[in-house]
């Protein structure tokens, strides 16, 4: 008896469940660092994804916690629903209402994240225009002149009956004031909406979804999804559209434009990607987050002679910067600073033991970084007033644009001083790949435009003649519930194999860089013959890195340029094009998806969508929306099927445009041609 009791009490201690590195990621550097973390007894997101399962009802989108009578949970019965759906919450909210409200709150949050970023940029730009800061300047006056008319700001002035150029400072000030008012102007509509193709703008107008100002649309979602307000999922989706347009054609687009004006518009450049960019004998500073305002200064500080000399006095050979997430993409696009990895690799950069400082601003920053940093010498520095961490090892250096360079130098010096404190063994994976990044609307025009016949001519011509089958935007996050990078890379390889040119942003772009898809040489290896020929002729990669997630606005404008160049319909929904977010996880991705769909793009998400508990609402997003805006949502977890769905849509559009036969002609091989000629 006593023996039995002892047996019961002394259970063998189970070793904690941890991730299988090969199942967690297709990237060898990531696999190596997951193993190292496990050896050191440090858990990472990959391990936590094994031990914590997602909530089944939340996954279905039908858990309502919008009032204290709940949470009310409305899972779909295992066998589905026959006849009337009688499920309801305490107040009577249906599964459709609950799932639509949850979806809408994701749109509101995602829009807020992009747009608050845009607001910060606009505020700094106003300081520049008012000459209140000297650390930032207008680096791209051409871009300022190109956006001014969209705000109704004149670039010339009449003097003695003649039009002459207006002072740049005057234009900057007026643009800054007009831009900033977009967040809260009391009447009218957002200034940038008219940049869309006219039929699209008219569609939005007819549907009553033109955003009035950015903040108002977000506030209205929060109001309408409060207990007992909007209880018609179609009406809720309408506000989702209006809010998401305030993101894509508003806050995010202004963030991109004003960053280009102040920090310079990107142009193609060579860099590298993956954890292997970190250097053992250098001071390594990892910059992580989304707002590139402070990081612009950190780049300048780290490249300054005095800081490099100071690093040498501490025994380092120099200073190596690396990026994570979209701040990383911003400094890659403009300065060639290599990304150290995607969203899921943030903990791993510290686990190398070589990260002397990690500087974070806002969004996509794991709170667990503080716990990982505790195990190493790494200084984890938060810099934004709205994004602090509770752990006591985190240092907060608050950024202020009025003394930005001073703040940046303080941070860089802190990293240098920390170089000699490295304790744990340093293990940096050797993996890294070369990449060409830095594309934008302007550089696509340069590479794929026509000298004599208007913008984007070469691109359109090659789509019409079938060498390029269509255009895909593949964007977005990593998600620890899918195999890191696998979906991005498999989908993109399938697309380019089928002659679809890919525009990429966010972590998808970093993944492409890591896996070698961002070089012109990729064309000869992975592309179908038509796309390979075009890429080899003009010397571009088949996958073009367009920047960070706010830079999805560049994809909207590139699509608009394609429409304008002619021959492919009159609206974005006419184009042989599709969108994809293979490994999405962020609410920002939902806002992006909604503005792509509402701009006419067929948009496929990977992993899963929290809609299964409300099939009627799901059907509205997946089918009905196409009848209104020409674009619709879809979801496909299998990456090959995912790409095939996009290709099928592209082919459907080619057929509607009457250009489906052209492709058949292009893809004939020599034998086919000879046969034809001899007939
Ligand atoms: O804004 S892709 S994981 S880093 S949310 Fe975050 Fe997603 Fe990466 Fe950039 Ni975008």
Give average pLDDT, whole number: 94
Residue stretches low in confidence (pLDDT < 50, at least 5 long) are 1-7
- Arrangement of strands in the largest sheet: 8-7-6-9-10-11
The biggest beta sheet reads: 6 strands, parallel
Query: What is the CA-atom radius of gyration, in angstroms?
Result: 26 Å
Q: What structural class do the secondary elements suggest? A: alpha/beta
Number of helices: 29
What fraction of the residues are assigned to beta strands by DSSP? 5-15%
Distance between the termini: 95 Å
- Overall 3D shape: globular
The bound ligands are: FE(4)-NI(1)-S(5) CLUSTER with Oxygen
- Binned, the helix content reads 40-55%
- Give me the count of strands: 18
Would you mind describing this structure in some detail?
Helices cover about 50% and strands about 10% of the residues. α10 packs antiparallel against α11. The N terminus is likely disordered. It contains 29 helices and 18 strands. The protein starts with a helix and ends with a helix. The longest helix has about 35 residues. The strands form 5 sheets. Strands 8-7-6-9-10-11 form a 6-stranded parallel beta sheet, sandwiched between helices. It is of the alpha/beta class and about 675 residues long. Bound molecules: FE(4)-NI(1)-S(5) CLUSTER with Oxygen (BF8). FE(4)-NI(1)-S(5) CLUSTER with Oxygen (BF8) binds next to α14 and α21.
């Amino acid at each position: 008896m006593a023996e039995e009791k002892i047996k019961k009490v002394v259970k063998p201690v189970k070793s904690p469940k941890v991730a299988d590195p090969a199942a967690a990621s297709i990237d060898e550097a990531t696999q190596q660092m997951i193993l190292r973390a496990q050896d050191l007894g440090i858990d990472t997101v990959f391990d936590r994804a094994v031990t914590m399962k997602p909530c089944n009802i939340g996954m279905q989108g039908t858990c309502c916690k919008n009032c204290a009578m709940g949470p009310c949970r409305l899972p779909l019965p295992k066998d589905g629903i026959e006849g009337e759906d009688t499920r309801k919450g305490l107040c009577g909210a249906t599964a459709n209402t609950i799932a639509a409200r949850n979806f809408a709150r994701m749109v509101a949050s995602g829009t807020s994240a992009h747009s608050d970023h845009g607001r910060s940029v606009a505020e700094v730009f106003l300081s520049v225009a008012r000459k209140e800061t000297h650390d930032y300047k207008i680096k791209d006056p051409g871009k300022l002149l190109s956006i001014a008319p969209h705000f109704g700001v004149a670039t010339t002035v009449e003097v003695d009956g003649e039009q002459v150029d207006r002072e740049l400072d005057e234009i900057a000030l007026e643009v800054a004031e007009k831009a900033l008012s977009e967040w809260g102007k009391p009447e009218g509509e957002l200034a940038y909406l008219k940049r869309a193709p006219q039929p699209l703008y008219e569609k939005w107008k007819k549907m009553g979804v033109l955003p009035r100002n950015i903040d108002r649309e977000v506030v209205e979602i929060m109001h309408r999804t409060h207990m007992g307000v909007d209880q018609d999922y179609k009406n809720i989706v309408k506000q989702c559209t209006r809010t998401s347009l305030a993101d894509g054609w508003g806050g995010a687009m202004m963030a991109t434009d004003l960053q280009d004006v102040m920090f310079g518009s990107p142009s193609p450049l060579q860099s590298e990607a993956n954890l292997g960019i970190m250097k053992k004998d250098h001071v390594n500073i990892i910059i992580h987050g989304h707002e590139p305002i402070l990081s612009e200064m950190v780049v300048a500080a780290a490249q300054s002679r005095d800081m490099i000399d100071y690093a040498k006095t501490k025994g380092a050979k120099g200073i190596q910067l690396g990026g994570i997430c979209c701040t990383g993409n911003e400094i890659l696009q403009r300065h060639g600073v290599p990304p150290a990895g995607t969203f899921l690799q943030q903990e791993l950069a510290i686990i190398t033991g070589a990260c002397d400082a990690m500087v974070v601003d806002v969004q996509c920053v794991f709170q667990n970084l503080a716990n990982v940093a505790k195990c190493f010498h790494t200084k984890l520095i938060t810099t934004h007033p709205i994004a602090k961490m509770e752990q006591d090892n985190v240092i907060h250096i608050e950024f202020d644009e009025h003394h930005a360079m001073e703040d940046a130098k303080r941070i860089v010096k802190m990293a240098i001083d920390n170089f000699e404190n490295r304790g744990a063994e340093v293990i940096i994976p050797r993996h890294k790949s070369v990449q060409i990044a830095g594309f934008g609307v302007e550089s696509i025009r340069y590479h794929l435009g026509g000298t004599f016949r208007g913008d984007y001519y070469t691109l359109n011509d090659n789509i019409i003649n079938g060498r390029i089958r269509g255009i895909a935007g593949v964007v977005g996050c990593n998600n620890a519930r899918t195999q890191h990078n696998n979906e991005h890379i498999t989908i993109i390889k399938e697309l380019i194999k089928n002659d679809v040119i890919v525009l990429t942003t966010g972590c998808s772009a970093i993944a492409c860089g890591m896996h070698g898809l961002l070089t012109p040489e990729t064309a000869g290896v992975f592309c179908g013959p038509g796309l390979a020929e075009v890429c080899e002729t003009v010397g571009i990669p088949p996958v073009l890195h367009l920047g960070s997630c706010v830079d999805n606005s560049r994809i909207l404008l590139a699509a608009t340029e394609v429409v304008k160049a002619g021959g492919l319909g009159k609206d974005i929904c006419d184009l042989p094009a599709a969108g994809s977010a293979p490994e999405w996880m962020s609410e920002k991705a939902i806002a992006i998806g909604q503005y792509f769909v509402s701009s006419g793009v067929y948009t496929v998400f990977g992993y899963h969508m929290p809609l299964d508990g409300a099939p009627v609402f799901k059907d509205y997003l997946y089918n009905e929306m196409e009848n209104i805006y020409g674009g619709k949502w879809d979801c496909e977890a299998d990456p090959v099927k995912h790409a095939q769905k996009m290709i099928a849509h592209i082919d459907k559009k080619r057929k509607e445009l009457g250009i489906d036969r052209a492709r058949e002609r292009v893809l004939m091989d020599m034998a086919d041609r000879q046969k034809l000629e001899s007939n």
